[in-house]
């Protein structure tokens, strides 16, 4: 699902002239007019399937064995409004669990997404009925365009029709007849620069060290200099010009002083922002220029003056405040590495390193020598000229964060878009098949089999190979994430698995691929009644009606299991929690790096709190967790464990919680990391640790072979033995 969201967050294209948006049309070339599709073989107009005489768009994932397909279009946001809403009708056939069709609404700035929402939950019914879906957003004042569309994830077919766009409660029948505004070009242009006739791989150590020093100065000025921060210079071009000067032998201080002369630095200091300082919890004040004697005294004085004057202005265009007061990087340009590849790669390394240096809220917790890492990766960037090797370098940088959210939008080790029909887990040093999602009657594969090798490569060697490039908040989730990522294979050829069962080894070729289902919850319906009239609710596949059903049933039996061993299909944290709370219950505090103060982590005034609403009281609540519980799942558990008579059962969660930030880079690739710091009610971090259960239960290999859900068994035992007051 991460790949799909990445695709939808980064796709962008030009607007068209005014036209109706409630119907679809085919041009003379047989393609959709004004709409962009993922694959024009699989996404087509279907005149046979209609809604009230309106033709539909058909998205067929089975025809070419695709994991996702989409249809989308964009247009300029050139009108004033407060809210925007997308409505449509969806129909599906042959879709799988935890998958289906959605519509989505996106707001962009400079072709980068700053708001993204999709309808919840997936439409995955096979009832031959049209389902009305909608998604709404508050207009972001920074947005310059809107993208709308529909997508299908997983197997099957979907149809979309009756697309409607509503603005401030009124339907917009025609699109604005205005082209997207073009960016202002500078007198100098990056495309005008010619390739340097130098061997970048043979730069000496002094030159490399000076390039690193320039990277740090460039990033500092980007966020601390008022004119640079407001976008009054083409700062990417400045980086490339100075980089080229250093490569050609110009002295470092001479190059930096020339830049400082161009942009002018303040020569007076103003009073500090005591209010901001009083709300700070952590501060990573840059001091590298104070300890590096290579920089001249004038340069050090200029940088220190800028740091002390930083409170004199607010957000920068490069890290402006979003609606949650988190830094947003959508104005960064997506660049191409076809022209000046060496300079562009150094620029991307500098961009990402500086974003993390000033805006990662766990910067002070990075265990590696962060500055030495920049030196090492700069040298590697210069030594390696392949696109793949540079992506690995970016992954190494992100891996230093120990952040389960961190990574590139492109899974660089992914072998294909099809998946072996398994979920696997890391148990007792082995990779074990814990669930099979498709019937494989002719294949000698069983739950509990240990995977020894994939396509003649030992699986532990494959995991060890990827570990330096993988960011994980804790070791258990790291193994889990890498191992399940290895299940992605080429759709065009079979995968040869070497399996071990009862100490006997055998091989089997699998070509019957499926859809990944990264959840360990109970198969079957989202709401179930289990042994002893215990009501069971899982978050994978949930919607609000299902929550109502579970609450209605559990109010009669007094016992409820909430299975969070997977990712919620809808944001039900407060909807469920408020119904089970007896009194207002604070469960989390939030902090972030203030967009007006790079490097300074400050508390948000908001305190995450459950508020009773039409509450019911239960005798016992069991919350099930393990390494598949990540991000929103973990935040939900933080709230629900505060409910009366609630017990968290299972094993430690992934330890990656908080809103994700996106940094546009090059060639369509972006980077992600956690941008919101989350503390529990006692002020303790959850990131890198995970939620530790009240009762620890984790399956053994024997449990998995016998297909025993020991976490569920323990929950049933506790709830059925519970004696109500």
Automatic annotation (TrEMBL):
GO biological process: proteolysis
RNA-binding listed as a keyword: no
Keywords, comma-separated and alphabetical: Signal
Signal peptide per UniProt: 1-17
GO molecular function, one term: endopeptidase activity
Name of the protein in its database record: Tail specific protease domain-containing protein
Pfam family for this entry, one: Peptidase_S41
InterPro entries recorded: ClpP/crotonase-like_dom_sf, PDZ_sf, Tail-specific_protease
Residues in Tail specific protease domain copies: 492-698
Provenance organism: Aliidiomarina sanyensis
